[in-house]
Amino acid sequence: MLKKALSAIAIATLALSAQAEVLKVGATAVPHAEILNHIKPALKAQGIDLEIKEFSDYVQPNAAVEDKQLDANFFQHQPYLDSYNKDRKTSLVAVPNGKVHVEPFGAYSSKIKNIKDLKNGATVAIPNDPSNGGRALILLAKHGLIELKDPKSLTPTALDVVKNPKKLKFKELEAPLLPRALADVDLALINTNYAIEAKLNPTKDALFIEGADSPYTNIVAARKDRANGADIAKLMGALHSADTKKFIQEKYKGAVVPAF
Questions:
Q1: If DSSP states are collapsed to H, E and C, what string results for the chain?
Q2: pLDDT digits (tens, 9 = 90+) for 111-124
């Protein structure tokens, strides 16, 4: 009798496992993977087994989606995706209703406490990818440190700086390395996910920071053939829930701002 009962349980367990649909999503650790881990139970209840693969850079998550190793990723904003597609000849897309949150981009320093104290000829570290490097320059321009040729462009480069009264020197680094460079530069423009990982508090430690009106909203991206999948729709439903909004607001306290 016991044997039959155990067999029945085993069969039921196998049936439930068979019904669960695996959804593989790539993400950077903070805050993206943390948010995805938060919604895993909600997706499990809907028959979706969410597998999260963490990355420490901005190139591999897109490459893994393009190569069909992953179904989707969650780490980037639209200007970065556009730049990636252009450079790599790919055609990844933001999924329907794919916007999730804004990570206000900030300027940090271990040498000064006020941006007014930034010296002439100071070295400023910015990300070396076109979209985030441009984002850094836009933020510097917004605070009057430089002037750009086209204020409306989302992808300016150092060559587009037409006025630089402090004669700032720009040092381009890979985004994950920027927090480590703080001791070697006068100012560093750092993506919030890497700032948080480095134990920086964007709302307290940044000398200045983007507002919630930033056009750099983080999105979920996928291949065109996967973007409209029912499982992707369930993923976005969980990400856009009131529970997820509360989680983001309470955990990150303004360092990450819901965009839904």
A1: CHHHHHHHHHHHHHHHHHHCEEEEEEEEHHHHHHHHHHHHHHHHCCCEEEEEEEECCCCHHHHHHHCCCCCEEEEEEHHHHHHHHHHHCCCCEEEEEEEEEECCCEEECCCCCCHHHCCCCCEEEEECCHHHHHHHHHHHHHCCCCEECCCCCCCCCHHHEEECCCCCEEEEECHHHCHHHHHCCCEEEECHHHHHHCCCCHHHHCCEECCCCCCCEEEEEECCCCCCCHHHHHHHHHHCCHHHHHHHHHHHCCCCEECC
A2: 999 999 999 999 99
What global pTM score does this model have? Answer: 0.83
- Segment 17-45 shows an average pLDDT of 93
Q: Whose structure tokens read 């999730």?
A: 100
List, for residues 149-159, the tens digit of each pLDDT value.
999 998 899 99
pLDDT at 6: 47
- Asked if the model's pLDDT at residue 7 lies above 90, the reply is no
